[in-house]
Write a structure and sequence with these properties.
Layout: E1 2-3, H1 6-14, H2 20-34, E2 38-40, H3 42-53, H4 61-73, E3 77-79, H5 82-94, H6 99-110, E4 116-118, E5 129-131
Parallel strand pairs: 1-2, 2-3, 4-5
Helix pairs in contact: 1-2, 1-3, 4-5, 5-6
Length: 133
Amino acid sequence: MKGLDTNVLVRFFTADDPEQTPVAKAAIEVAEDRGERLFISSVVLCELVWVLEGRTYRYPKASVLEVLERILETATFQIQGRNLVREAVARFREGRADFSDYLLGRIHHDAGCEETWTFESRLSDSEGFALLR
């Protein structure tokens, strides 16, 4: 199994670099053809969302959700905490906070935390979060 860095996924999904995009696509396609697994950590997913939503790409939330769903549906991708990521994607779809907030909340819940303390007001109505005041 090989691990993927955020920049490889950015090239794969945005096709924004004439030199790196074909290399990223070919590497992932070869792994798929060979039945190999490619590991994507939760940190990489958070970075990917941050990059796609950022100043350079400005992906709308719906497009970011499409990328996350595609990753979840791709059998070649071994995702760290796949079920937690799936739950975080569902909460992100409906919520007002960042994907990373929802993933963090699911990771904390899975670790046995009663709640996650935060100053992030966009999480005020999210199950499993408590605003510190």
